[in-house]
Design goal:
With 89 residues, the protein is an all-alpha fold. The chain has three helices and no strands.
């Protein structure tokens, strides 16, 4: 019987860890920073990347992270509505 295949990781062709990529994209999105400001902040933390890398990661992974955040918000909203309905009874 063949083994089920794991879904391919979207980070598989990148040398950086997924945690670093997520940190970079979230810093750029969450705070009013330019690409070069993100580059400078990461250089202070010892992570050496170019501002063009930040832009590339934002274009590649930004929509994926946004979809994850939307999914989490919807699930939290549904849970709170269920809790309110139970308390209200």
């Amino acid at each position: 019987m063949p083994r089920p295949r794991k879904p391919a990781s979207p980070f598989r062709y990148f040398n950086s860890s997924p945690e670093v990529i997520r940190l970079v994209v979230m810093m750029y999105v969450r705070f009013p920073l330019s690409l070069r400001n993100v580059e400078d902040l990461l250089a202070e933390r010892g992570i050496d990347i170019c501002h063009e890398t930040v832009r590339h990661w934002w274009n590649r992974f930004g929509p994926m992270f946004a979809a994850d955040i939307r999914r989490q918000r919807v699930s939290r909203r549904c849970q709170s509505n269920v809790a309110a309905a139970v308390v209200g009874c």
